[in-house]
Design goal:
Blueprint lengths: L2 E4 L4 E4 L4 E2 H8 L23 E4 L10 H7 L6 E3 L4 E2 L3 E5 L22
Parallel strand pairs: 1-7
Antiparallel strand pairs: 1-2, 3-6, 4-5, 4-7
The chain binds FE2/S2 (inorganic) cluster (FES).
Amino acid sequence: MPIVRFVKQDQTVECPVGTNLRELALKQGVDLYAFPANLINCRGRALCGTCRVKIDDERAASAPTAAEKAKIGWEGPQYRLACQTKVLADLEVITNPRVRYGWLNHPTYKWMEDLPH
Ligand code: FES
């Protein structure tokens, strides 16, 4: 069974192949959403984008859904919507990763990607 590590929370959990990442995080009590999205979100329908996470290996997760690609596909394969992601193998997950749009995406601020999340 795959092992998922939530990096910020320093929590590790074992789960069956195909487990939904959002459901796993919520079941483990992991803070998946930043306030106020923890109160108001689309409950896993790929509409709000607030369950966005960064994973260490895109091959260890299911392929992005069409809705997910439309929402955050431009960010690259490591950025996923937890509600649309199924765990296939061992995975490291960073919840609420740094936002990569607007002026933060300018090459001037590339150094910020090396900062701890
Ligand atoms: S919970 Fe809204 S997009 Fe995942």
